[in-house]
Design brief:
Largest sheet: 3 strands, mixed
Shape: globular
Radius of gyration: 16 Å
Order of helices and strands: HEEEEHEHE
Low-confidence stretches: none
Strand order of the largest sheet: 5-1-6
Distance between the termini: 13 Å
CATH topology: 60s Ribosomal Protein L30, Chain: A
CATH superfamily: Ribosomal protein L30/S12
Number of strands: 6
Strand content: 35-45%
CATH class: Alpha Beta
Helix content: 25-40%
CATH architecture: 2-Layer Sandwich
């Protein structure tokens, strides 16, 4: 995720988070091939297939799960980034949720 990368680099001045954001950052492991990866999922989404061996979700183990808001807030604190929670009751807030998946960042400098 580009926002996580920018937060790790300290490039984010302000992190915009929709109040409608309900995703978790989930670490997964494929029991068949051992591949581990991180993905953002809502609680209602099924576990994905392994991107390495295409094993179905019966062989996928959830190693850990944390609220995406908690994870990003922690990263923002480390980089002295401001947090702004945007209501979905406004047109702009609705656009943030629908058009940008509920996350956006104002950067201090360009990130490649």
């Amino acid at each position: 995720m580009m926002i996580k990368k920018a937060l790790d680099m300290g490039a984010v001045d302000t992190l915009l988070i929709s109040e409608g954001m309900r995703k978790n950052s989930v670490n997964l492991k494929c029991d068949s091939c051992g591949h581990e990866w991180n993905i953002s999922l809502t609680r209602s989404q099924e576990l994905p297939h392994c991107s390495q061996c295409d094993t179905k979700n019966d062989a996928i183990t959830e190693l850990s799960s944390i609220s995406l808001i908690d994870e990003l807030s922690g990263l923002a604190g480390k980089g002295n980034s401001e947090l702004s929670f945007i209501s979905t009751d406004t047109e702009e807030g609705s656009q943030l949720m629908e058009g940008f998946g509920g996350l956006a960042a104002i950067l201090r400098y360009p990130v490649m």
